[in-house]
Write a structure and sequence with these properties.
- The complex is a heterodimer.
- Chain A is 38% helix and 27% strand.
- By secondary structure, chain A is α+β, with helices and mostly antiparallel strands.
- In chain A, 29% of the residues are buried.
- Chain B is an alpha+beta fold.
- Chain B has one domain: 2-Layer Sandwich (GMP Synthetase, Chain A, domain 3).
- In chain B, helix 2 runs antiparallel to helix 4.
- Classes of the chains: A alpha+beta, B alpha+beta.
- Chains A and B meet through helix 5 and helix 6 of A and helix 2 and helix 4 of B.
Chain lengths: 260, 92
């Protein structure tokens, strides 16, 4: 499982960024705080540096060697951080993830499907649309929700903005009912949009990665959302001699591909 | 009296209203306590959402993230109504 590294001005915010990038919930993440409240040399800003990854499901995964740069923190990183520090390190320590949810049993698939079906049928109906809902379980804890129908374009939106919003909202009823259990990471695809986009983006990322491999010159992509950035990170991780990193804040966050 | 007026007003942007109502009710613990008041002013439809006290956090979310996500959805739904809709979450 790949580690990502993010910086920010408060621990909470930094972790939140990391979760966004990975496109997962807090319960499914593993954090490592590699720098807590470090003060820059020439400015007074405080940087938190957090490494995060999708929590491995097996004990073997946890024993993977730790990669990544930890010592080599430049002050350039600090200049990225903006805004005032909101949390003190002591408080932050208390907030370190104590994981419980992942130890819980998975909610029965049929129940998760029922909750999601109720939600999406209700949403389609409210929207005045017609569509069919299908499920696909690539793993026990990963669920693809496939919605097909006519004129579902409004549910996708520009840059899948609406689709992403729907996904976020759909998680809440599931969370509400998962009291003693946990639920799958689920991904929603509407009219094959995600699928097409994933393929195109992966192809594009690999093409750029190969260019970086050959030229040895770094490339910076357009700003993208967390899911798209993750796709690029994943695609590039298949290539040798190049690596990726996200930089910039919020809407401006973009992937940099550079020789490793 | 007020409620009647509000129900009529929901016809102004029926898709946006239905989506907003559905989503908010799906998120809260007390769907019966959800109330949406609709007013129209200068080409903008205002939808003010009221929920039970305990549910306020649920619809607003951390740093207003859930609230913004709901707005995104309702805005998209309002395309169908050909209206500009603004959603607000009110106290009490």
């Amino acid at each position: 499982m790949e580690w990502i590294e993010v910086t920010g001005t408060s621990l909470e915010e930094t972790k939140e960024h990391a979760l966004k990038m990975l496109g997962i919930e807090k319960e499914d993440a593993e954090f490592e705080i590699s720098e807590e409240g470090k003060q820059g040399l020439f400015n007074r800003k405080i940087t938190f540096r957090v490494r995060a990854r999708i929590k491995p499901k097996t004990a073997a995964g946890r024993q993977q060697p730790k990669r990544g740069r930890r010592a080599n923190n430049s002050s350039k990183e600090n200049s990225r951080a903006k805004g005032a520090q909101r949390q003190r390190p002591q408080r932050a320590e208390k907030n370190q993830p104590t994981e419980k949810r992942r130890d819980r049993e998975l909610m029965e698939k049929s129940k998760q499907e029922q909750i999601l079906t109720d939600f999406f049928e209700g949403l389609l109906h409210a929207w005045g649309l017609k569509g069919s809902i299908k499920f696909n379980w690539p793993k026990d804890y990963v669920c693809d929700v496939i919605i097909e129908g006519e004129e579902l374009g409004d549910l996708v939106g520009e840059n899948a903005q609406i689709l992403t919003a729907i996904e976020t909202i759909a998680r809440i009823p599931l969370k509400k009912q998962a009291i003693e259990t946990r639920y799958a990471q689920f991904y929603v695809d509407i009219d094959g949009y995600r699928q097409k986009r994933t393929e195109a983006l992966k192809e594009f990322a690999l093409k750029l990665g190969k260019e970086v491999q050959e030229s040895g010159k770094a490339k910076i992509l357009e700003p993208m959302n967390n899911r798209d950035r993750k796709m690029v990170h994943d695609a590039i991780s298949e290539l040798d001699g190049v690596t990726t990193e996200s930089e910039g804040e919020r809407e401006d966050r973009r992937v940099k591909i550079f020789p490793s | 009296m007020k409620k009647e007026q509000s129900q009529k007003m929901s016809e102004v942007a029926p898709t946006a209203y239905a989506v907003l109502e559905f989503v908010v009710k799906a998120l809260v613990n007390e769907p019966d306590a959800v109330n949406i008041e609709v007013t129209e002013e200068a080409n903008t439809v205002y939808m003010d959402v009221m929920v039970a006290d305990d549910d306020r956090g649920r619809v607003i979310g951390r740093r207003g993230r859930t609230a913004n996500t709901i707005r995104t959805l309702v805005n998209s739904a309002s395309l169908k109504d050909d209206k500009v809709v603004e959603v607000d979450f009110l106290d009490g």
